[in-house]
Amino acid sequence: MLPSAQGSGPLPRATGPIALTCGEPAGIGPEIAVKARLALGSRLPFFWIGDPRHLPPGSGFQVIRTPSDTVDVPPGLLPVLPHPFPDAAVPGRPSGGNATAVVTAISRAVALVQAGAASAICTAPISKQALHEGAGFAFPGHTEFLASLAGVDRVVMMLACPALRVVPVTIHIALEDVPAALTPELLEATLRITHAALIRDFGIAAPRIAVTGLNPHAGEGGAMGQQEAHVIAPVLARLAAEGMRLTGPHPADTLFHAAARARYDAAVAMYHDQALIPIKTIDFAGGVNVTLGLPFIRTSPDHGTAFDIAGQGVADPSSLIAALDMASVMAAARAAG
């Protein structure tokens, strides 16, 4: 298991409440919010920003006026900071009329964490298609929108679970476009942001980062590709000379078994599936999406809206619970730094 911070013993949690955005109300977000509150009780305070009408029938909740009221809500009730929506929520059928309210709920959460009223943000899944069609949403997803709200030019996506932290350098692009997108500048920026976040947000004083190659067998000495020699290795050598603890480029197929994972605190992979396949194999239900490089903490469950099971009461809250817990630990580490 990877250490979340150097040392031993229980990790500290943030004292302030976490803002949980409602996400797409026609998905499983409202259901897993209620389930997470029931599972966590008051030991990890969070409040839900959304319309109480969208919670599953019979859900126990209590309306709050400010985030600070969260601590006064009984453990069996979900603290709700009301955010009115125009339309009701029909499970599995997103409403274009609600799209703008989904976006403004995210903006409201950012404003609260920037004001110090919340210690971190955890975002429930959104439907990018619904936001594009209903609100003219101009961003590829949550991450880019949050970066824009924060005034940050570049952020990094990390997927994390107790056994693995992994960062893809290139993300949502076609595989055929990866070699051209994989520039020394992008790789260096990704490594710097990852390194800084491991120190600031995970409390690891001297992070160990393993880096994959792009090609099979990390290029096999050039027989299977030149990116390892011409792009990856020079960046690693330059940053290692500055004092970063970097290894690689490693063949990706040998980097994610248990013995290999014990030798690093995070792995940086070259493309989406190279990073996400191992973590989803190791811990499909408990993976957390973390945005590195923001001036505040943001986590999210590593799954989508799950329209196919919305409203059936069978959604698994494990990833959301893990995301809330990781947000709290990260916020405490940043505050302590």
UniProtKB/TrEMBL annotation:
Domain of life the protein comes from: Bacteria
Pathways involved: Cofactor biosynthesis; pyridoxine 5'-phosphate biosynthesis; pyridoxine 5'-phosphate from D-erythrose 4-phosphate: step 4/5
Cofactor: Zn(2+); Mg(2+); Co(2+)
Subcellular compartments: Cytoplasm
Gene3D superfamilies per UniProt: Isopropylmalate Dehydrogenase (3.40.718.10)
A molecular-function term among this protein's GO annotations: 4-hydroxythreonine-4-phosphate dehydrogenase activity
Reaction equations catalysed: 4-(phosphooxy)-L-threonine + NAD(+) = 3-amino-2-oxopropyl phosphate + CO2 + NADH
Record note on cofactor: Binds 1 divalent metal cation per subunit. Can use ions such as Zn(2+), Mg(2+) or Co(2+).
Main location, first listed in the record: cytoplasm
Enzyme nomenclature, EC number: 1.1.1.262
GO-annotated cellular components: cytoplasm
InterPro entries: PdxA, PdxA_fam
Pfam annotation, one family: PdxA
Binding site for substrate: H142, T143, K280, N289, R298
Top enzyme class: oxidoreductase
Keywords: Cobalt, Cytoplasm, Magnesium, Metal-binding, NAD, NADP, Oxidoreductase, Pyridoxine biosynthesis, Zinc
Additional observations: The active site is located at the dimer interface.
PANTHER family xref list: 4-HYDROXYTHREONINE-4-PHOSPHATE DEHYDROGENASE, D-THREONATE 4-PHOSPHATE DEHYDROGENASE
Function: Catalyzes the NAD(P)-dependent oxidation of 4-(phosphooxy)-L-threonine (HTP) into 2-amino-3-oxo-4-(phosphooxy)butyric acid which spontaneously decarboxylates to form 3-amino-2-oxopropyl phosphate (AHAP).
Oligomer status and interactors: Homodimer.
Homology family: Belongs to the PdxA family.
Protein name: 4-hydroxythreonine-4-phosphate dehydrogenase
Organism: Fertoeibacter niger
